[in-house]
Amino acid sequence: MARLKSSEDFNLKGAIIYSAVFLVLIFLLTVLQTTCLSLIGVTPALTFAVVCAIGFILGKKAGAVAGIYAGALMIILGGVGASLSPVLYAFCGYLCGAFVGWFLSKNLPSFIIYSAIAGVLLEISTVIYYGLFSESFLLWQLTFKLLIPEYFAFLLCVIPAYALVFGIYTLFKGKDKRKRRNFN
After folding, report:
1. What is the maximum alpha-carbon separation in the chain?
2. What mean pLDDT is predicted for residues 114-142?
3. Full-model pTM
């Protein structure tokens, strides 16, 4: 069995640090979202925006893992009922990472477009959820009282989520490069 080189060991340590930082970030944002954050009577999907940003910046695998974790936390902490949130969050995190370079380049306007598409998928799942489990389901009432405000509250969170994930990524990426220069 081959032994890992010191640079590969360092990359593994970096991946563990990235994972720990982003898992703690997702946990804190999920607690904030499910307990006290509310804009105009609607809770924005701040955790979902961060999952999309992680997928976009760190790649499709990181987005999928962050999505599963965030979706499971949403169920555990009571943000949503028993649902397919982990699957939806993982799917959207994966797609935001997979579409980078296929259709648009890796920049902020592209991220906003991908997040807007992911937000539409989130709202479609909300309609399906209400259609299956609500006793009185009026689509026009659901649209104007919940879906539209929730969607625009999500879009307000997209740029801060991108800035937060990109800032953490840049902070650790800079340290990673400095330490690599010292090892070589």
Report:
1. 66
2. 80
3. 0.77
